[in-house]
Design goal:
By secondary structure, the chain is mainly alpha-helical. The protein has four helices and no strands.
Length: 125
């Protein structure tokens, strides 16, 4: 039997705290990158392309004029926003599974008195 993803087993709620901290860290990183994007962009290219093939001359290579740094800033912000939405939706799914889990525990017949509702009181839900 193969490994079943945690979402399919209904255990995404276990990752709720991790996802929340990941989202906060991710948003902080995106803000830090967008504040000084020009330097970050250059440092990223220096780390990724150690052979300096990424350095273009604005006179000889039209790609510099076609795709300015502002284009890449916008692309990074859009990518960061989409990723944040995906992490946020996972947090929402985890919270939904947590609510379902507590609802099942509260109403399960073998929870040994864990359900404190009075069945005669119409105000209890």
């Amino acid at each position: 039997m193969g490994v079943v993803p945690i979402k399919n087993r209904g255990q995404l709620w276990q990752l709720s705290t991790v996802l929340k901290f990941s989202l906060m860290g991710w948003l902080i990183l995106i803000v830090m990158i967008s504040i000084d994007f020009g330097d970050w962009f250059l440092q990223l290219h220096q780390v990724v392309f150690t052979n300096h093939d990424w350095i273009f001359s604005p006179r000889a290579d039209q790609i510099i004029n076609l795709l300015p740094v502002k284009f890449f800033l916008r692309f990074t912000l859009i990518w960061g926003g989409i990723t944040s939405l995906l992490i946020g939706s996972l947090i929402g799914l985890a919270n939904q599974q947590t609510k379902q889990l507590f609802r099942q525990l509260r109403t399960h017949p073998t929870n040994n008195g864990g359900d404190q509702r009075n069945n005669n009181d119409p105000n209890d839900n």
